[in-house]
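Quick one:
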Amino acid sequence: MEQEFRIEERVDEGVPVITVVGEIDVATAPQLRESLHRVIAQGQSTVVLDMLAVTFLDSTALGVLVGGLKRCRELGGELHVVVADARIRKIFEITGLNKVFPLAAALTEVGAP
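Output:
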């Protein structure tokens, strides 16, 4: 049974939030890349990536996140990643990306309602 994959973009109190639901892998990562590029191209240098409902993350997804972070930082901003699932956080820790990305366990930690 294939799980639903969905990306939603919104602005909460001036903060752009991209919410991802499902698995981010080689098949779905391009959609996330497009969403990040679109939000950043609208002049947003700081973006919140809500990954609270992400169930799987592969190396392709990590590459998209690193690319998004680079774009945000080039504009003087940041890519905040919100993830609470211990399995997903472990991927950031194993790869050392927990030292690169500002990780939060809740949207309120990054100023998004």
